Amino acid sequence: MIPLRDSNPSGTIPAVTVSLIVINTLVWLYEVALGAQLDRFLFQYGLVPLRFVVSYRLEGGVADNAIVPLFCSMFLHGGWLHIIGNMWFLWIFGDNIEDRLGHVRYLIFYLLCGIGAALLHVAFNSGSRLPMVGASGAISGVLGAYLVSFPHARVHTLLIIFFFIRFVELPAYLFLIFWFLFQFLSGTAQIGANQDVGGVAYWAHMGGFGFGILLLWIMPKRRRFQ
After folding, report:
1. What is the pLDDT of residues 152-211, one digit of tens each?
2. How far apart are CA 99 and CA 92, in angstroms?
3. pTM here?
4. SS3 letters for 15-44?
5. Which domains does the chain have, with CATH numbers?
6. Three-class SS of residue 219?
């Protein structure tokens, strides 16, 4: 399922959402320009679970091996489809959560969801030597917040099932529950698999989604949403 747009206009200019999209895009263009140096860059600034776990023993300590990658990995991507998909989801769903929380709280919310997603990924892949990169953990938090905030908003969706292709309009709760179930089933199927085989960080997606719901419940909202 590919979301095309939602029928839930924002009441404010989504300055933070747009800024995040611009920053992620600029970082991606920098990655492209690195050429042969890209792998080294991703291993340095991506979140490597094993390095994170033993960071206190490594040169550079916790700062270089855990804290810096924890934040930087949220702005790195592994391919054109990776960044386009992430930024598209952020564009469709992020403006309404920014509108609900306010600009500053939304930015804090986004970063905390990304951190929570990364930590869950580490918990389920603690022996992995591969870097995790991508904004999808933080964006999954936005999706979780959208589910509980606007469950009945309509999401115009391109539905593709093998050769069956159709445009449909789904309630947000149905679209997002299907999305979460796919992450859960895929993540469960990965349990016990070789942790050094690359792939989608499904547990990061689920972690971000759950943190998004929790944080939205905890954080104060803009007055008109209370």
Report:
1. 999 999 988 777 888 999 999 999 999 999 888 887 776 655 555 456 788 889 999 999
2. 13
3. 0.90
4. HHHHHHHHHHHHHHHHHHHHHHHHHHHHHH
5. 2-225 (1.20.1540.10)
6. coil
